[in-house]
Structures are given as C-alpha cells and as structure tokens.
Design a protein that fits this description.
The chain is an alpha+beta fold. The chain has a single domain, classed as Roll (Nuclear Transport Factor 2, Chain: A), CATH 3.10.450.50. Helices cover 23% and strands 33% of the residues. The protein contains five helices and five strands, in the order H-H-H-H-E-E-E-E-E-H.
Length: 163
C-alpha cells in the first residue's frame, strides 16, 4: 500500500499534514486522545494498509476472528478515498465511551461507493478502542476516466486515483 509523504495532507481529511495528524498514532503508537481521533486514524489505517493497527485498536471483546490476513483479503480491491465525520457524541479525553458518525468514500475497480456508520468506542485505561458499528454500504456510480475524482482533489479521476 502507498504511504503518503510525511509533508502531505493526512488521508483522514482533517486538513493537517499526515506527520502531525495520524502518523504519530500509526507509526509511533501514540494513543488517540478522542474517539474521533481514533476513527480518523483507523480510516488512515484502512487507506494505507496498517492492518495491525486496526487489530490493536479493535476492542478484544469485539474482535471475533479478525486477522491481518482477513483484513488484507477483504480490503484487497478497495481503495479508500475520503472520510467525512458528520457527528460525534461524547468521546472526549475524559469520557468513557463515544460514538462517531461518518461517511467514507471508496473505489472498487471503477465503482464508487460509500460506507456510512455510527461507530461505538470505549476508553479503557486511557486508551480508546473501536467496539462495533452497523455499516451501510451504498453504490454511487461508475466512474469514467474524465470524471472528477471523488476524493475531492479537483483532478480528473484518470490523473488522480485511477489504477
């Protein structure tokens, strides 16, 4: 999976450089301060292939048969493009639980889709964990080479995310 340059914008859509946003959580194992920060870093982990991070930040009581291999296979044909956090309920550094409502856009081949979810998080011993969510997947469109790229870059799809 491609890794963004340290100076580039973070894939989570925060508007911050990757080096100051999600990189410290993914590379240096810093702890997320809020449920939203963990949600954003988990999106980056999906987008950039940090499957070990996804397992580490998934609460042990909700992991079931989660494995790096299963995540790699599941995500093999998916390219995560953009994250929009719509709402957060609790999840501050002093809360014990929180919920983040988000929409993530992705490509599978030339098909654009959206995943919308209200993700639940808990904080144990100062560390946030993802517990569960009910994902809703929606197919949006089939992209042509000259379509605007759905990541919001302003470039044509063929110049941005077309494989």
């Amino acid at each position: 999976m491609p890794r963004p340059p340290v100076s580039s914008a973070c894939p989570c859509g925060s508007g911050q450089p990757f080096a100051l946003c999600c990189r410290p959580l993914l590379h240096e194992k810093q702890q997320a301060a809020t449920a939203e920060q963990l949600m954003r870093s988990r999106f980056c982990a999906f987008a950039l292939g940090y499957f070990d991070y996804l397992i580490e930040t998934h609460h042990r009581d909700f992991r079931q048969a989660l494995s790096i291999e299963a995540l790699q296979q599941q995500d093999q044909h998916t390219r995560w493009l953009a994250l929009e956090v719509r709402d957060c309920d609790a999840g501050s550094p002093t809360d014990a639980a929180g919920e983040v409502h988000f929409v993530a856009r992705y490509l599978e081949g030339d098909r654009l889709g959206e995943l919308e979810e209200r993700s639940a998080f808990v904080r144990e011993q100062g560390r946030w964990y993802y517990t569960r969510g009910k994902p809703e997947f929606r197919a949006l469109a089939t992209l042509g080479r000259n379509s605007p790229c759905p990541c919001g870059s302003g470039k044509k799809y063929k110049r941005c995310h077309q494989q």
